Amino acid sequence: MDIETKFTALLRDRNLKATPKRLELLSVVANYNSAIPYSEIQNKLHHFDRVTLYRTLNAMLDGGIIHKASVSSDEVYYAMCREYCTSECHNHKHVHFKCLQCLEVSCVDVTNPIQIQIPNVVIKQVEIEVSGVCEKCI
Amino acid sequence: MDIETKFTALLRDRNLKATPKRLELLSVVANYNSAIPYSEIQNKLHHFDRVTLYRTLNAMLDGGIIHKASVSSDEVYYAMCREYCTSECHNHKHVHFKCLQCLEVSCVDVTNPIQIQIPNVVIKQVEIEVSGVCEKCI
DNA sequence: AAAATAAACGCAACTATGTTGCAATTAAGG
DNA sequence: CCTTAATTGCAACATAGTTGCGTTTATTTT
Fold it and tell me: What is the DSSP letter of B36?
């Protein structure tokens, strides 16, 4: 099964039409080596109407196909979901790491599972944003 | 030492002039029972010029007097820094918890220190954003 | 206590993203 | 191929981010 067919299946599974724009957006996000900044998506898809990009991204987020990977309220980054996510539940088991030097953001699996406990509180979701210097920039 | 004197000292320590506006902003942030949403700051300080609020907030963030406490790219929340922070290093040992019901955001100390390790990477900062249901809303 | 100075402030202006409505277009199923 | 419901583009509006500049003010110096 080629990549385009895979994206089409992914979309149809979420009751989203597999339009050329959506397939194009997905290939842009998926082919980026790390989490892709919003501005970079815009660059690559400058022929998209601004609102279309906005709505397409929202549809993908809603469908649990991509997720946001922002670190400390900077520009928003996007990445493909690896696990099966839904609108309500983006349950990633990874952390987001941003290199302060090259500004690259990536999804990193953590070996030791992080256990966070807060008394008298029901925890639904935990997002961990790590920043520092990546291997290439040390 | 009363609170206003304390804020004045806090500002001067960072080479920031202790102006009425800055003291007012600090008292608004400090008197809020949890992390205060940006919109709430605006409400309470509607007599501030928009740019002044923007610049004042930035100065406080820069000086390590307040910090952002956003959870998942929603509205930005602000809270007083408890530790001694600087522009480069906001080293909080707490996590940010957002109740999905009442939308209140608070800084929570975690008893068990979170140890995150990523191979071949220098970690400078870790932000943990937790969302769920708070005690009052259960 | 008054003057000097460097910072803070308000205003105008511009940029960018978020968001909605509506008409035109198009994907998907029969 | 035709129907229909979803998607797209355009226009329009809202709000936050950001900069420059002239005026005001907090703090220092005389």
Answer: E
CATH class of B3-137: mainly alpha
Contact B80, B115 (CB under 8 A): no
Tens-digit pLDDT profile for residues A29-49: 999 999 999 999 999 999 999
* Neighbouring C-beta atoms of residue B97, cutoff 10 Å: 25
Q: Is the CB of A17 under 7 A from strand C?
A: yes
Residue B75's nearest nucleotide, by CA–C1', is D16
Q: Alpha helices, DSSP H only, in B32-129?
A: 38-44, 50-62
Mean pLDDT of chain B: 90
CB-based contacts of A33: which residues, under 8 Å, 6+ apart?
A: none
Residue B132 has its nearest CB partner, among A76, A108, A123, at A123
Calculate how close chain B gets to A66, using CA atoms only, in Å.
14
Query: Do B119 and A138 touch, CB atoms closer than 8 A?
Result: no
Q: Partners of B35 in the beta sheet?
A: B105
Question: Which strands form B94-99's sheet, in the order they lie side by side?
Answer: A105-109, A94-99, A122-133, B122-133, B94-99, B105-109
B residues 38-57 near A, CB within 8 Å? none
Q: What is the pLDDT of residue B72?
A: 76
